[in-house]
Amino acid sequence: MLCSSCDSERHRMFLESRKQKKDDADCTESASVSAQSAEVTQPQPPERRAPIKPQAKQKEVTIFNELLMYVTCQRDKSNTASLRSVISSFYSSSEISHAKKQIVTYFGPHLSSCEFVIERRNSVQRSATDAETEDITEMLNILDNTGVLRNVRFAALQYSRLPKYDPEELNICAVVDRQVATDNTISSLNAKVEALAGGCDLTTQTANTSKIVQTVESMCTSIQSLKDQLNELAGKCDQLASSSGEPVTKTAEQDRSCNVVLSGIPECRDINIWRSQVVEALSVTAGRELTLADAFRLGRYNADRSRPILVKLMTVWDKRLVLSGARKLRDVPEFRRVFVNADEPLDVRRRNILNRLKSQAIAARKDVSVTDGVLFVDGAPKFSLVNGFIRDDTSRMSGLSLRNDA
Fold first, then answer.
1. Which residues contact 106 (CB under 8 A, 6 or more apart)?
2. For the chain, which terminus, N or C, has the lower number of CB atoms within 10 Å?
3. Any idea where the domains of the chain sit in the sequence?
4. CATH dotted code for 255-343
């Protein structure tokens, strides 16, 4: 065993070593804390950020469809029911289907999960057109809520396919208001007319009206006589040209595409009487009422016979209806002796007459021959393509001369 002095010495050395270890630990800790504080307080270099690129402006898209343009313009101004009613009544089913297909084509990715893109068919509850109309309005609402229509513009190419009224104008209240305004306007006009009528003498008005009617009738008669004179002069010019053998040069070809010729209408100096008969006869042949562009007599007035009437119809289709239904006149007692033919050139008409006379003579077992455009029946000339019908007093001389020339 150690002595007490040794033991105390060793205890002192243990305490000193312990104190030394503690001091070393405190120094190490203070050094680490100072190092950490130096790291914290050391200024950091500023962080470099990437420059912000400006967003490119989205390009505007224009879709040409009249229905979609009307819907986008009116859907915020009216209720949905009125808007759908206007679309269903104004546009056809094909136009509505085409508008829906355009929406699906342009905005298909944005409507992939939408139930309104499916194809519609007619059902017992509603038609396919009503269903597609609802699909169009609902799909536009979806696209507008998602911001897809922000850069989309709808335009129209045919402004005639845009309704001239708003959906709200079909509201019964708006209709009643317009009716009331119309009634007030009519009442005001009626009061003004009565005031004007009260300030004028009725006898004076009647006298003035009769004078006007007489003047108009005299003018119509004068115009008709002038037309007759012009037709007579034209016939004489044609005869002179045919007799001279020189062709007549015309500045413009006469349009006969809408003309027909009526024969058998009795003569009358009053143009309104025989024009009404013409309209009635043509209405019978066409099966409906017709409108005449013009009608006038051909040739000089003769009380013993009725002159043919040249009628100018409004369209070629009216002429076809009249000619195809000409046989209906024989079923009407007052028009049994009225005949309708196409307005053809003179040479065509004479060629048709020659062929008809030739066929009749052959059917009657007569001796028929045609020499230089002249029809001979039993050796006597009857008809010529140049002069038309040949009279009996000149037929013998014409026949002899033609026989000698032959």
1. 61, 63, 152
2. N
3. 61-164, 255-343, 350-405
4. 3.30.70.1820
Asked whether the beta carbons of 262 and 281 are under 8 A apart, the reply is yes
> Side chain identity at 52, as an amino acid letter?
I
The per-residue pLDDT for range 352-400, each reduced to its tens digit, is 888 888 899 899 888 888 888 888 988 888 888 888 888 765 444 444 3
Nearest to 128 by CA among 104, 96, 87, 162: 96
Category of 245 on φ-ψ map: left (φ > 0), alpha (ψ -120 to 50) or beta: left
CA dihedral 340, 386, 238, 337 (to 10 degrees): -20
**The 3-state secondary structure of 220-233, one letter per residue:** HHHHHHHHHHHHHH
In this structure, are residues 170 and 85 in contact, taking their beta carbons and an 8 Å threshold?
A: yes
- Answer whether 374's CB lies under 8 Å from 398's CB: yes
CB-based contact 96:133 (threshold 8 Å): yes
Contacts of 180 (CB under 8 A, 6+ apart): none
Residues shown for the chain: 406
* Strand-pair partners of 38: none
Q: Tell whether pTM > 0.85.
A: no
Q: Which two tokens stand for residue 48?
A: 């470099």
pLDDT tens per residue across span 250-283: 434 467 888 999 889 888 888 889 999 999 999 9
At 61, phi and psi to the nearest 5?
Answer: -115, 135
